[in-house]
Structures are given as structure tokens and as C-alpha cells.
Please model this.
Amino acid sequence: MERIYLDNNATTIVDPQVVAEMEPFYSRMYGNPNSLHSFGIEVRPYLHRAMERLYAGIGAGDDDDIIVNSCATEGNNTVIMGMYFSLLKDTRKKHIVTTQLEHPCVREACRFLENHGVKVTYLAPDSNGLITADMVAAVIDERTALVSVMWANNETGLVLPVKEIAAVCREQGVYFHTDAVQAIGKLPVDVQDVGVDYLTFSAHKFHGPKGVGGLYVRKGATLPPLLHGGEQMGGHRAGTVNVPAMVGMAKAMELAVEALDYETREVARLRDKLEDALLRIDDVLVVGSRAQRTPNTVYASIRGVEGEAMIWDLNQHGIAASTGSACASESLEASPILTAIGADRELAHTGVRFSLSRFTTAEEIDYTIAVVEKAVARLRALSTSY
Ligand code: 7TS
Model:
């Protein structure tokens, strides 16, 4: 059996159709779209088409902006730093509300602003691993400028009630940002229906290329740019546009929306099969109910088995899974989500995340189930605590 990739929340294979769409912009149409000669001019209609696909993919309105950038980390920093320069720095607004579940690129950007006089509330999830609109409403005050709550969590796949949270923010006159990196291609995403002011995404999480992402900005919610310089992206983000990547991201977005149905039926079916097999093993806990999760993710805590040991064992058998976020995998800190849902100290290091994609096959899942069952038995036999 070839290697099996079940770490799609970290990154995904680029869809071959996306690669094909990008290729001409490396080999033939390599002009700078801002140039006045034919090499530049011939590229522009493709950028226009790419923009249309991105707008359609997230339901953006004609007067809203989508700023194409380098990744979700950049998008999230643009919102948080931009809010500092537009409001937090000089007005009475001095407060950001976010959560302990956010990716480090949100959390650390907020922490940085704490050194500059900004107060940040990091909401802790409830015992289901969720943040509710009521929890957000309870901490907003007249000094709050921004609420930033992710749409779906990368570790657990848990989907947060962003529409209700957006409604609370609108009522209170507070900007609402959501990191939708783990939502695109897994859930229907409609920015106008949800009522967000800012939304970030990253192409490599939905079978697009790495190093390109997008930031949606609702009409009227404009922020200062993070990168100053040329007039690209309507002056919102300077720097020559990465044309092949942008075209690829737009194609990937279109394919992701088309595949949503398959994702919610077939990918979920394979995930459920794997999850059922995990739950048949004694002393295994899966975080969050299926109905509240993205269709592709299962995050399990296996008592008596260190997450890292499990990942190593699976890797020896050609299976790629993860203990959580690759961005934090160097750290030996306990998973905040497992801690939040009340896992004891021993369980806090036992998390293993399997994240599937539309490229995952039934045979791969059957093989994974067989390997996991043996690995758990082997590692428990070695464990001094089980
Ligand atoms: N936001 C979320 C929710 C993420 O899951 C990630 C990456 C990012 C932002 C950062 O995206 P980037 O394109 O800027 O790198 N998350 C993960 C993960 O779960 N495992 O590895 C990376």
C-alpha cells in the first residue's frame, strides 16, 4: 500500500485540475499584471476571472473586498494589527475578544497587542469544546473593538456558532472576524448570510497551492494594509500578485464548493467508519459530537497511549496523522482543547487527529483501522500507566 495521508487539516494535496490551471502562468503567461505591455495585459482577464470565482465561493457582495495575500496567518494578522492602527491605538476602544481555541497566528497576534495597551479576553471553551454566542455577549463592553472567533477548530473539527456570534457583534456595534481556514470546502460558507466583517482562508487547506490565501472585508469595514507599497489589490496589499497561486486558489475554491456534497456524504461516511472503529477500542474518547464537527475530522484520546508514540507507530506503517496542530507539534504542552473539556493530566497528551479529504479512499480507511487497532494494543502493552 502506498503511503496514506490523513493529515488534511495541516495541508492537502493540490488537486491535479488546480495544477493544470496554474501551469500556463509559469511557462507562458508570466507577465506582471501591472505592466502595460502585452505580457502584463494578457494576464489581467485571468485575475478578474479568479476574483469572480473567489467572490462566488464565499458569497461576497459586489462592493465587498477580497484581498488575496500569502496565507491565513497574514490575513489574521492584517485584521488584528489593522484594528490596532484604525481603532485600538487612538480611541476609547481598547479591547479584543477571542478564544483559547484559536490558531497561534490569532492568539499570538493578540498577545503582541497586549504589550501595546490592548486588553484581550481569551474565552475558554465549555465542556463540549465550544464557544457560545452568550459567552461572547457576556464579555463585550463599550471598549470592545473586535471579536475574533474561528469558524471550525483545526484540532477537533468542532464548528462554532459564528452566525449567532456575528449577530451579537452586530447588535453591539463590534467588528466580527472569523478564521474560516477549516471551514472552506467542508461547510457551506456564505459571508453575507453569516454577517461577518472579516473572514480569512488559506488555499492549501482546500487542495490549492501553499503560500496564498484570502481576506474578505465587508464593504465599510476597511482596515489599513499590513504591507505598504504598490497599488496592488486596490492598495489594500502591496506586492506583486502571485498570479499562478491566485489562479490556482480560485480554481480550488470552485472545486471545493462543487465537492461539498461529496464531502458531507462520502468523506463523512469514511470518517464515521474510522471513528466507529476507534470507539470500539476500550477507553477511547472522541472529542465533540459528530453533528457539531466538520465532516473530515476525528480527534480521539486513547488512554494509555501517548499521542506522539501513536503518530510514530502509524508513520512506521505509512500512515500520516497528527497529534493536533503541526504549528504546535514541537511543543510538549498539553492540548488546550483536551484540557478544556476536562481531560485529566494523563489524558491531555493522548490526542490523535485524523483528518480526511475527498482524495481519501475506503481501502485506506480499512487499512488504517487495522493498523490503529494493533498499534493501540502494542503501545498499551508497553505503557506503565495502563
Ligand atoms: N488558522 C487555522 C484554523 C489553521 O488550522 C491554520 C493552519 C492556520 C490558521 C494557518 O494557516 P497558514 O496557511 O497561514 O499556515 N493549521 C494547521 C494545523 O492544524 N496543522 O498544521 C497547520
About this structure: Residues 326-330 have pLDDT under 50 and may be disordered. The two ends are 32 Å apart (CA to CA). The first helix runs from residue 16 to 22. The CA atoms of residues 284 and 302 lie 5 Å apart.
